[in-house]
Design goal:
Layout (H helix, E strand, L loop, with lengths): L1 E5 L4 H13 L4 E3 L11 H14 L5 E6 L3 H7 L7 E3 L3 H11 L3 E5 L5 H13 L6 H13 L1
Parallel strand pairs: 1-2, 1-3, 3-5, 4-5
């Protein structure tokens, strides 16, 4: 399952991304917020997505948005089995999946356009992990740190 969420800073872009995902018939669950509120904070929504991904990291993925993408990223990375990465272009998104098997994509709503966000999500969702020996070795090293 794909889960998406944002804070107020990423809310509008999340809405655009949700329309894009629906148009591509990509099944997802929006974990909030359901309406814009300038008083909300990113930890609540990032934690919801990260908890879902953490429970079944082989099956679940997430996309998180906030103004810089940094806040949601460091919250998500607090969860076991989560590998969240900030991506601002298609090349970074592809590398995050291919090399590092990232399972949560973090987007900086203030620094990219909705079109760029859709392109990044498309590339990220369509890139598979390489299963290269050096990449597997690195992921095992990271797991030992958890």
């Amino acid at each position: 399952m794909l889960y998406i969420a944002s804070d107020h800073g990423g809310f509008e872009m999340k809405q655009e991304l949700a329309k894009y995902l629906k148009s591509k018939k990509i099944v997802f669950t929006d974990l909030g917020p359901k309406k814009y509120s300038p008083a909300d904070d990113y930890p609540e929504f990032a934690a919801k997505v990260a908890a879902k991904v953490s429970k079944e990291p082989a099956k679940n993925k997430g996309i998180l948005l906030c103004r810089s993408g940094q806040g949601v990223c460091f919250v998500a990375n607090k969860f076991k089995n989560v590998r969240a990465a900030l991506s601002w272009n298609e090349h970074v998104a592809k590398a995050s999946r291919f090399d590092d098997d990232v399972n949560i994509l973090c987007l900086p709503a203030d620094y990219i356009s909705p079109e760029t966000a859709m392109n990044i999500a498309r590339v990220w969702l369509n890139t598979k992990f390489s299963f290269g020996q050096r990449h597997i070795k690195r992921l095992k090293e990271v797991q030992q740190l958890e």
